[in-house]
Fold:
Amino acid sequence: MTRHNVSELSLQELRQSVREVFRRGGGSRPAVFLVGVNQDLAVLKDHGACDPWFARVLGPLLAGREARALERLRGIRGVPVLIGRPDSRSLLIEYLRARSLEDSAENTDWQAFFDRMAGLLTAMHSRGIAHCDLRSPYNTLVGAGGEPFIVDFVASVSKGRAWNIAGNWVFRQFARADREAMVKLKKSVAPQLLSEHEEATYSRCSGIERFARWIGSSVRNLSRKIFTR
Structure:
């Protein structure tokens, strides 16, 4: 049967329809491919390409975590759409025609970009999702018209129910860390735009951001030791 849409392909067919390799999988890192049928393109994020034990044990948890975040953010401009789940360890995600922050065009209107990014973060946080890894410049993309896109929600934190006081306090700290990370991105590409308040924010690395980095690196290192070769 001829497939006309990328969403109709099985995981095996998607792996045979690679147009570009963004990242090869291995260890604790999923493979990320541009896949497509004719002009219908999408991004395949495949935790099945990690080392066998990592893929078997943590692959479904990580893919599920990101899928839930994308579903919760569906409809927000600037967040890629989750197209489907080819299997429990993979995601098929909207392909965004954009560049990483570091590779963006020199004529980008950074003031407009960061104003829109601030609005995007507000929209995400209002849906109860904090990204938690915006300090990486590769998770923020710049569209052809200077529009911000945020990708890779595998480390995201969700807001809990109203009774979950401790969990919601943690969520608010991570939401604040997202905003502080945006200031650091602005410092890296357009330092002349920083306000005095943002300069003060940049000069102090908040405890929650340091804690988040420590938790993230500790969990990654432990999982690599246990589940990878």
Summary: Residues 6-94 form a domain with the Phosphorylase Kinase; domain 1 fold (CATH 3.30.200.20). DSSP finds seven helices and ten strands in the chain. Helices lie at 11-15, 52-57, 59-72, 110-126, 165-189, 196-203, 207-227.
